[in-house]
Amino acid sequence: MTKIYDFKNNIESNELREVASCIRDGGLVVFPTETVYGIGANAINKDAVNKIFKAKGRPSDNPLIVHVSDKKMLNDVAKDINKIEEKLINSFMPGPITIILNKKKNIPDNVTCGLNTVGIRMPENKIAREVIKTCGVPIAAPSANISGKPSGTNIEDIKDELSNKVDIIIDGGNCDIGLESTVVKVKENKVIILRPGKVTPEDIRKIGLEVKLDTHIFSDVKNEEKVESPGMKHRHYAPKAKSVLVDFNNDDMVSKIINILKENMKKYNSIAIIGFEEHRKYFEKMENIKYLEFGRIGDLDQISRNIFKMLRKLDRDKVEFCIIEGVEKKGLGIAIMNRLLRACSYNEIK
Ligand code: TXA
Ligand code: MG
Questions:
Q1: How remote is the CA of residue 233 from the centroid of ligand 2, in Å?
Q2: Cβ of 30 below 6 Å from ligand 1
Q3: Largest Cα–Cα separation, the chain
């Protein structure tokens, strides 16, 4: 039986100690971070790490990221840190970033799937920090979801999917950001963004570093193509509903959607639109169309917080066809569009 501990208002010290010994002894604990929830295990215990892959049904070639509470713990697992990496660490940690660094030998091979690098993250969320600090060991943790599903950002979705697959679930309320961390790697003195997130290219430019988006941020990986991050190849976030994404352009999005609806109305029993609050009025009176609003135009923080919850709702409501409104590919909008494009299998209407 999975135990549920409520740390929303107060981290109870006996329960925290129990969480820490569970992880140290090789158990699995779901814990909140500011990005999404993670399924955590002792990163230096190979058998515990194996349990994560099993619980998620995760492909064995997709490495896990390792969570640390401070710089000392970071230096216990990563080595040969160069000036640029050091600057990223000092500027953005703790926070919603994962930096790919050379790994030390104590990290077992199954954490990194045989790579000689390891993704390091130092979360800012208070509960996450307390958990890692009290455990005293680095924690390997992928997002809390079954492989291929949207990452868990709230306790209802997590209980639905992971009850009885882990030892403890910590309820820390809704995640602030709602999208996974920005994953970066330094290559030839440039910062390459492998997965966009709350830390944007502009944020990295502002600290004086050169930054580039990986070529696969907005496009699919072809068979056999070599990728910098194994996670890029795997199917992700896709709801059961056939989904299309409408390119952001506030002037004619609504008419584009009406055309798509006309073409598809008769083909599906259940249709949904995920879109802006401002556009609800055009669709709410239409019969058989469910309108799910994810935020106001331009409120990217709110939209990012809601996306995964809404994608899950499509499956729960047995929606067969879904139209999603896109946002501008700028700032946090880059991360939002990266997730939405994948959810729609790159089916974008321009
Ligand atoms: O916000 C987050 O990053 C959350 C929370 C729980 O911290 N975690 C998370 O983990 O999203 P996961 O496993 O769902 O995504 C980690 C991504 C994957 O795409 C993986 O391929 C990539 O990071 N990754 C991990 N280690 C890597 C490495 N050594 N080289 C390149 N990519 C790596
Ligand atoms: Mg994930």
A1: 12
A2: no
A3: 61
Closest listed ligand to the CA of 112: 1
CA of 258 to the centre of ligand 2 (A): 33
Q: How far apart are CA 132 and CA 293, in angstroms?
A: 36
Task: Kindly report the backbone phi and psi dihedral angles of residue 5, in degrees, each rounded to the nearest multiple of 5, phi listed first.
Answer: -110, 130
Q: How far is the CA of 280 from the centre of ligand 1 (A)?
A: 35
pLDDT on residue 272: 98
Report pLDDT for 41. Answer: 98
Other Cβ atoms less than 10 A from the Cβ of 21: the count is: 11
Ligand nearest to C-alpha 49: 1
User: Which of 145, 216, 229, 305 best tests ligand 1's pocket when mutated (most atoms within 8 Å of CB)?
Assistant: 229
pLDDT higher than 90, residue 235: no
**CA-to-CA distance for 295 and 316, rounded, in angstroms?**
20
CA atoms within 13 A on the CB side of 183: 24
pTM score over 0.70: yes
In the reported structure, the alpha carbon of residue 271 is separated from the centroid of ligand 1 by a whole-number distance in angstroms of: 33
Q: What would the two tokens of residue 38 be?
A: 């993670």
- Residue by residue, DSSP assigns 55-81 as HHT--TTSPPEEE-SSHHHHHHHEE--
Q: Is 231 in the pocket of ligand 1 (CB under 6 A)?
A: yes
Q: How far away, in angstroms, is 143 Cα from ligand 2 center?
A: 4
Mean pLDDT for the stretch of residues 85-94: 98
CB 314 within 8 A of CB 343: no
Percent of the chain topping pLDDT 70: 100
Instruction: Please tell me the number of Cα atoms within 13 Å of 337 on its side-chain side.
Output: 18
Per-residue confidence band for 165, with pLDDT thresholds at 50, 70 and 90: very high
Tokens of residue 147, six digits: 């492989």
Token pair recorded at residue 65 = 């990221």
pLDDT of residue 209: 98
Of ligand 1's atoms, which has the minimum distance to the CA of residue 195? 19
Locate the ligand 1 atom nearest the alpha carbon of residue 38 and give its number: 6
